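thread: overnight batch results

M.L. [08:02]
morning all. the overnight job finished for the chain we discussed friday. pasting input first so we're all looking at the same thing
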Amino acid sequence: MNTEKVKTSIKRFFSNPNTLTFFLVIGLVIVVYFIYNYTVSRAISPVTIPYSTKMLTSKTQITNDAIGTVKISGSFVTLSGNGLIQSKAKILNQYVAEGYQIPQNSFFYKEAIVDENQVSKTSFTDLPDNYSIYNLPVNFHSTYGCSIMPGNYIDLYFKAKDTDSPGSKIIFELFIKSIQVYKVVDKEGVDVFSYADGDKEPVPKYIYFAVPNEIFELLRKAEKVPKGSIEIIPVPRNAGYSENPEETTIANEAVENFILSQTEYIAD
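M.L. [08:03]
and the structure it wrote out:
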C-alpha cells in the first residue's frame, strides 16, 4: 500500500468540513450525556443531613443528644440553598442564635446557629455610635401575629388626628423607614421567641430597635404630644427589604413638623 496515498486520504478526510461537524456533534452529545447523568445522579442520590431531635430555644447549646441524622434526596438539598447545614460537626456545641428557635425534627440553617462568643453578646453590644435604643409598645396584632422578628427591617407609620382641620381628619403616613429590630419581648422582658414549644403563647409587649439620636428624640416627643392621639405602627416588609437595608431615615417631613409644632426646644 502506498503510504503517501494513505496519508493524503486521511488528511482529506479530517479536513472535510462535514467530517469535523460530525465529530463535534458526537463530542457534544457525549458531554451533554455525562452532564445530564451527573445531574440526575446527584438529585437522586441520598445525602445525610443533621436535624434537631428536640425543641431548641434561643441561646441553647446544641449537644450531641439534640442532633440526629437523616438521608434525604440531593434535589432537596439543592433547592434549600447554601443556608442548609449538611455537617454535624458544624453544629455540635454551637448555640441557637438569639431570636431563633429550632423546632423538633427541623433541619439546621446557618442564620440560626452561632458560636459561644456571639451568643454571649447582649442585644445592644453592637449599637452604632450616636444611636439610641427605643422600645415601641406593641401587641400580638400590631406585630402581625408575632411575625416581626429580631434582625428584620421594618418601617414605622404615623397615625394621628389633625384636630386643627375641619372634622378632625386622620393623618396616616410613612414616618420612619428601614429600622432593624433588635428583639421582641413580653411584659416581663422575656424574648418571645425563646419560649419552648408548648410553654405558652407569645404575647409581645415591646419591640426594641436602634435609631439615630435625633430620631430617638422625635419618637419620644411623639409619645408626649398633647393632642392628635398619635399612634406609631410597625409594618414588616419582605425578606429582600431586610437583606438589602437602607439607611434609617425620617420619610415624611410633614409628620416631623406636626410633632415638633407641639413641642418646644430649650436652648442651653
